[in-house]
Amino acid sequence: MGETTDRQYVEYGCHDRIATIALNRPEKLNAASDEVVRQLMAALRRFDADPDALVAILCGRGRAFCSGADVHQRQLRSREELERLGGPQGHGANAADLLFQSVNSKPVIAAVHGHVLGLGLALTLDCDLIVAEAGTRFQLTETSRGLGAARHWAQFHFRGAGAFGDEVALTGRFFTAEEALAANLINRVAPKEKLMESARELAVSVAANPPLSVRAIIRTRRWYLDRYAKEAAFQQAPMRLYLTEDFHEAALAFKEKRKPRGFKGR
C-alpha cells in the first residue's frame, strides 16, 4: 500500500566489532510493514554472518524506535487474505520469531526511545539486553486491537516481570522506561540524548569477553525464551483472533482515527 520496495528501510553498519542495525522509516515512526520486516531479517542475518561483528545494537531513526505493525498494510487485509496467510503478516514477514530465525547465538542489545509499541515491544523483549532512553513510552497494543498478547505475556514472565506483565497484558496500558526498569523488564535507562552512548558502553563490556563464552549463554537463553513464548502462543493460536469482528473493528477504528464502536466478543 504505497510502499517503495527498493528503499532501504533498515541500515547496517559495523565499527570496532559492534554492529548497528537501525530501523529507517522515521516518517511512519518506523512502523513495521512486510518489507521492513524482511529487510530487518536480512540485516540480522548479515550480522550473524559478519566475522567482524561480536555484538549488535538494534535502534530506530527519528522520533521513535517502532510504533508497531503497519496497521494499514498488515491488519486491514481482506478476510480471505488473512485466512490464506494465517494472520496479518505477509509471506516471509512474520516478526514473531524474527530474531531467533536470523541470529544463532550472537548477542543483540535493543536501544529504544520515543515510543515502543506492539510489534516493536515484542521485538525489543526478544533482544538479550535492553537500554531505553528516559521517558520512553511502551505499549502492548495487541490486547486493545483484539489480537491477544500471549507471546508478550510470556516475554514479561521470562524476564521476571510477571505481576507487572499480567497487568500490562490485561489492560494494554502505556508504561514508561522507568516503570519497566523498576519491574525488572529492561536493563538500563539512559539519560536523554545518551541512548546510543549507553548502549555502546554495554556492548563494549559484552564484547570484551571471549566470544564463545558469550554465545554459549545467548544460545541457552534464546532456546528457553523461544520455547516459553511459542508454548504461550500455541495456547492462543486456535482462537484465530485475526479473523474476529472485534479485530476488524479495532483496525478500522485506528485507520479512521476514531474510538471503536463497541466490541462484541466475536
From TrEMBL:
Q: Which domain of life is it from?
A: Bacteria
Under Gene Ontology molecular function, one entry of this record is: catalytic activity
Q: Any stretches that span the bilayer, and where are they? A: none
Q: Which Pfam families match?
A: ECH_1
Q: Which family does it belong to?
A: Belongs to the enoyl-CoA hydratase/isomerase family.
- Name of protein: Enoyl-CoA hydratase
